[in-house]
Amino acid sequence: MFQDQAIGKYATVPGRHHGTASVTSRDQSIKLSADETIYSEGEHAFAIYQVEDGAVRIYRLTSNGQRHILSFCGKGEWFGLENGNVRTDFAEAICETRVRPVRANQDAVVSIDLLHIALTNLAKAQCKQLIISEQSALKRLAAFVQEMADRHPEDPEFDMMMSRSDIADYLGLTVETVARSFTKLREKRILRLAGKSQRIVRLLDRDALVALTV
Fold this sequence. Notes:
Distance between the termini: 42 Å
Radius of gyration: 18 Å
Order of helices and strands: EEEEEEEEEEHHEHHEEH
Number of strands: 13
Number of helices: 5
CATH topology of the largest domain: Jelly Rolls
Structural class: alpha+beta
CATH superfamily of the largest domain: Jelly Rolls
């Protein structure tokens, strides 16, 4: 299991130097297996990460152990930026994933725009808030599929990567409700699901999908 501390001896806390973190020669890609932990709540925050391939789930646990997924991060997206030195959530690889840790270093030559990362993460949080404010489970799922589709604007077919359980914990629904809602979207001929785990989505009617979220 990879942990944030594994790179700690080379790192300082991101954002200490005028609001930017930087890539150093030590920042190499890390390969992760499905469900492998990247960091856990309470650990020291040594780095931020960029997804190079695969996908990552960010979540928190309630006092009774219930999981609430805050966001999903796909290829090219950043995660792990903290307002302090201690982790406030958990990060796990959803599938086989490759991430690149980035640590603050005054001597590095490539700067990362932390403000842009923070604003992007804020926009994702606001998007999720809008999704879960929908009372209808079908509308929640439609908004989620639209969010995933917006990450693949030129491709009508894409791999969601996350399981029904992941989606349920993100939308605040049960796995059974998520499954029924997918069935309704298929019956409306809005999408088709494929693959062994039914995670590959092919959009048949993007306009109808958008109309469901209005």
